[in-house]
Design brief:
about 220 residues, alpha/beta, Rossmann fold, four-stranded antiparallel beta sheet, globular
Length: about 220
């Protein structure tokens, strides 16, 4: 039986706001199987982005356990988390996280190189994502949807073991958002890359194999 790619057990997360303690998670549990896709749903403030930050080591939790790829992780082990983000965990944000002084090709090459894939076919990935003709342009020379496609090319070119997508179509118009979502789910299935998607869009969530509804923070 395959082990879970992601396993969260009895997770609690709190933070201080205005002199008060705000609890984001009260004993959260979830699992993601190899090749699976899971949608995180909930209103603003329910902790969707916070959970993705916890799963990528950008925030620490109060108590509970997080295991990735079969290994239980320590919240404060910054070197281990950094290595995971560099080589195994790809994150796609609502706003494409591209280096403005680099062309689309150079952005893809850099991300793949950081993950240890120096011979990546950056042009080929951009072609497959439908922005190959723009490969030599800079991020500010293309549209928001085209930048997001380039961000997906960066994510898949690094051949991640886990893809985290935080409202990846949230800043796009409906038509462009549908196109980007089609690309995201097609490549997620083709690559067999497990994915956790934070979204408020029920249409997007229903394309995932699992949906986890987060309660509002209290």
């Amino acid at each position: 039986m395959n082990r879970s790619v992601v396993r969260v057990d009895n997770l609690h997360k709190q933070f201080r706001s205005g002199g008060e303690t705000v609890a984001v998670f009260h004993g959260l549990n979830l699992t993601l199987a190899p090749g699976g896709s899971l949608a995180l749903m909930g209103r603003s403030g329910s902790g969707k982005s916070t959970l993705l930050n916890l799963l990528s080591g950008l925030e620490t939790w109060s108590r509970g356990r997080i295991s990735l790829f079969g290994d239980e992780l320590t919240a404060g082990d910054s070197l281990h988390w950094s290595e995971l983000r560099r080589k195994r965990i790809a994150t796609v944000f609502q706003e494409a996280n591209l280096m403005p002084a680099m062309t689309l090709t150079e952005n893809v090459q850099l991300r793949a190189s950081l993950a240890g894939h120096d011979r990546v076919d950056a042009q080929g990935w951009l072609d497959r994502l439908g922005v190959g003709a723009l490969a030599k342009r800079y991020p500010d020379q293309v549209s928001g949807g085209q930048r997001q496609r380039a961000a997906l090319a960066m994510a898949f070119a690094m051949q991640p073991a886990l893809l985290l997508a935080d409202e990846p179509t949230g800043s796009l118009d409906l038509h462009t958002a549908d196109d980007v979502a089609d690309v995201l789910f097609t490549f997620q299935r083709e690559q067999g890359c497990p994915m956790i998607l934070a979204t408020h869009d029920s249409r997007l969530a229903e394309r995932c194999g699992q949906i986890h509804q987060l309660a509002d923070a209290a």
